[in-house]
Each structure stands twice: as C-alpha cells, then as structure tokens.
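Explain this record to help learners:
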Amino acid sequence: MIDQVFNSPFNIGIEATLVLIILIFLESVLSADNAIALAAIAQGLEDKKLERQALNFGLIVAYVLRISLILTATWVTKFWQFELLGAAYLLWLVFQYFTSDDNPEHEHHGPRFANLWQAIPVIAFTDLAFSLDSVTTAIAVSQEKWLVITGATIGIITLRFMAGLFIRWLDEFVHLEDAGYVTVALVGLRLLLRVVNEDLVPPEWLMISAIAIVLAWGFSRRTKPEIANDEPAQNQREVVQVGESEGNQP
C-alpha cells in the first residue's frame, strides 16, 4: 500500500497529502466514464433545466450512498453478491440502450423519464454501481477512511462538473452517447469478472487505456449544424426575392 510505504512518524503530513493527491487523481480519471453515463441518463428528461436538476439531486443522493459504501467497504467486499448486482445493473442499462427501437423524434436511446423523480434514483444507483469499482481501488490505496472520503467528496464535485460538460457534448458529437454506454459495459464486465475470478480482472492501466480509446472514438465526429443544412434554401429564397424586386422596378 502507498500509505504504508510512506508511513513514518515525521512524515505523516506529507504522506497524507500525497495519498490524497493520488486518490483525487484516481477519482478524476475513473469518473470520466461515470460522468458520460450519468449525462446520457439525464438526457432521458427532455427539458434541459430538469436535466441539470436531476444531476444535482441525483449526485447528492449518490454522494450519501458513496460515503455509506466507503464506511462499510470492509463488510461489503466480503459479499460478491453486491458486485454481481452492480454488474447486472450496468449491463442491463447497456442492453436496454442498444436494443431500444429507433425513434425518429428522439435520438436518445437510453431510459426516458416522465418526471424528475424518476431520473434521480437511476442516476444515484448508477453512480453507486460505478463506485463498487472505484471505492475498491481507493481502499487499496489507503486504509484511512477520512482520506478516501475526502477524495470521494472532491471526486463527486468533479463528476458533476464533467457530467455537465458531457450533457452539452452529447448534442455535439455523433458517437459520444454510444461510446458512453460502451464504457458502462466495460465497467460492468470488470465487476462481473471480479465475481467469477479475481485473476481475470484487467489492471487499472488497461481499463483506463480502453476507456480513453472508446472516448476518443466518441469525440471523433461532430454533428452537422442544422443552420448549415438550411443555408442553400435560404440563399435560394434571397435570390428569388432579389429577382422579384428587380422585376418590379420601373
């Protein structure tokens, strides 16, 4: 453990600072796929204001659940059933997304919500499922729960900021929503492998590399602005109007 390596009576402050920086870095890196998933889920609300409110309230509930998970991590990690439930939930979200029927009126394929209160628990429990993976990583870095909680607090703030950005980017990039759900599938499969056989779980660097490649694909193509599509017709109308005005001149 990193905190054991730097454990010395005269170096406690430096050790705590270093471990906290590492935890914040891990939370930030591991929050990228989480943020895009939550942003895609929030888009199930058609109103942009409700999307922001769903993220705000959903992440408040998620924060309470995440702290509860940290405080009970020693007990939770003894039961593989929790990770199995988390994996099943994430993979169900992915299955629902990729098997949903195309709707010409709605490009969003994820879950749709009639009101704000339907979206909040889905956002909160999705973050909790992701936290089963990230909290385990954080506990492996440090056994000091106050450090892990501090890292999780900063991580949830970062997550809200990143999710807000992804909500905007989902409308700008064609493949980004698909990429988000592919990363959800990767996390779900990782949790499932942890249940089946711990030795089959890919290392963190491989997961981060795979997620980075998927997100790079997600950002590879922008949507075409609607204004650009209307320019030829607009120009044609202007030409006709000019011609008519010239024809009416004496």
